[in-house]
Design goal:
The chain is an all-alpha fold. It has three helices and no strands.
């Protein structure tokens, strides 16, 4: 039991370290961009997430339509299961778009503070 707790704590730390590296990488990428480039990236990222949702609906309809004659109502479960990966995967992409906009606000605020200090 103690080994299981140790393994789960180690896995959680590794996962949070990975998230922190991704966060720092995105922040560094956004810092090197202009305001317009950050807004364009956020818009493109948001569109990618919307595309994943639409693809999830297409996956659901395609699987249900293709499997209905062989599986019956069980095709609904197969279609939902296949589409869930796209639907729930888009949540991470939406979160990345929100982070980009958050970084943009922070970078603009620091730029304004630096300009006020210079005056």
């Amino acid at each position: 039991q103690y080994l299981l707790i140790l393994i789960s704590v180690t896995m959680f730390k590794a996962r949070t370290d990975c998230h922190q590296r991704q966060y720092d990488k995105l922040k560094a990428k956004c810092s090197a961009m202009s305001h317009e480039e950050r807004l364009a990236l956020a818009k493109r990222t948001n569109a990618a997430a919307m595309g994943m949702i639409v693809a999830g609906f297409g996956c659901f309809v395609g699987l249900v339509g293709g499997l209905w004659h062989s599986m019956g109502a069980g095709a609904l479960g197969a279609g939902f299961g296949g589409a869930c990966g796209l639907w729930f995967g888009s949540c991470g992409v939406f979160e990345e778009a929100k982070l980009i906009l958050q970084f943009d606000k922070e970078l603009i605020a620091t730029a304004v503070e630096e300009n006020e200090e210079a005056v």
